Amino acid sequence: MNNNDLFKKYINNELSKSEETEFYSRIKNAEMDPEILKDMDENSPFLVFGECETDRHTQTELFKKIEQQITKKNYFKIFLKYAAIVIPLLLLSVTGLYFLKNDWRNNEFEMIHASKGEQLFLELEDGTKVWLNSDSRIWIPGKFGKKNRIVKMEGEAYFDVAKDKDRLFQVKVNEMVIQVHGTKFNVLAYEESKTLEVSLDAGSIEAILERTGDSVTLTPGELIKVSKFTGEYQKQFFDPDKEHSWRDKYLVFSENTLEDVMIQLSKRYDFKYRIVDEAALTYTYTMKYKDEKLQTIFDDMQMISPIKIEHNNNIIEIRLK
């Protein structure tokens, strides 16, 4: 039986004992079978940590091995092909990697999208509150598990997590897993950005960096900034008025690069842009607005730095004067 047939039977809970043994043997070694990885890529919305007693660092390493071998550009392509099934990881022994069927197997997932120029507020079934910034997405299970509460997101979101000492709340974003029980924090992870930022208002969070295996604990007033290219990170203090004011419709920039400013403006005002002269990327901006017209912001930027912002066939072009 080929890998695809085995995987489909596994998803539908139709494997016989002999087929199940064969299936596990194909995914057991650390190198993994490329064909079954392809099938996993095509049939799974995303991978998450299972509810198990294993060492967290070991889980992180296993997750990283699988994720590195699956073609990332197709990683989230098919969202609900098989009733939105999630395959959690479970280490049954030091050398054995298995996939366990648990509460997530038959869970339905909902993807909520805040369009460009839009912001959304939602409350999850456990009482957790989430604010989504413009052009952001969150994937939510129909029902959380018995030992954890897992969501996935991209873009920017603010979480006010309901306290639950028996169930971790986990946010999967890019190559990071954020773990908390009850706390308030912001995640900034737009696809175009070169960094991933997590900033904490209250409580405590643990950020697990899958690429390096590092685990970083944040206390209130601290943020972590992670390079998407190298996995290197910096921990520093932050100004909550700057980091989280977007929930109150403010746009606040404090020594932000031109690229960072344009990413945020394009999300809020829904436009496409192109930076013609790369030398313009060296300029930074400190500004604060609420419900301001886009042209007013552009006028201020052109006063602050020697750049010219022009419309060209529905694209905003930025070049040096």
Structural class: alpha+beta
Task: Estimate the global geometry from the Cα principal axes.
Answer: globular
Unreliable spans are 28-33, 38-106
Average pLDDT confidence is 77
N- and C-termini, Cα separation: 65 Å
Proportion of strand residues:
35-45%
Helix amount: 10-25%
Describe this structure as you would to a colleague.
- With about 325 residues, the chain is an alpha+beta fold.
- It has three domains: about 5-100, no CATH class; about 110-240, Jelly Rolls (Sandwich), CATH 2.60.120.1440; about 250-320, Phage tail protein beta-alpha-beta fold (3-Layer(bab) Sandwich).
- Helices cover about 20% and strands about 35% of the residues.
- The chain has seven helices and 21 strands.
- The chain has helices at about 5-10, 15-25, 35-45, 55-70, 240-245, 260-270, 295-305, and strands spanning about 45-50, 85-90, 95-100, 110-115, 120-125, 130, 135-140, 150-160, 170-175, 175-180, 185-190, 195-200, 205-210, 215-220, 220-225, 235, 250-255, 270-275, 285-290, 305-310, 315-320.
- Strands 4, 5, 6, 7, 8, 9, 10, 11, 12, 13, 14, 15 and 16 form a 13-stranded mixed beta sheet that branches. Strands 1-2-3 form a three-stranded mixed beta sheet, covered by helices on one side.
- Strand 11 and strand 12 form a beta hairpin.
- Helix 1 crosses helix 3 (about 35-45).
- The longest helix is centred in the N-terminal third of the chain and has 14 residues, at about 55-70.
- The termini are far apart.
- Residues about 30-35 and about 40-105 have low confidence and may be disordered.
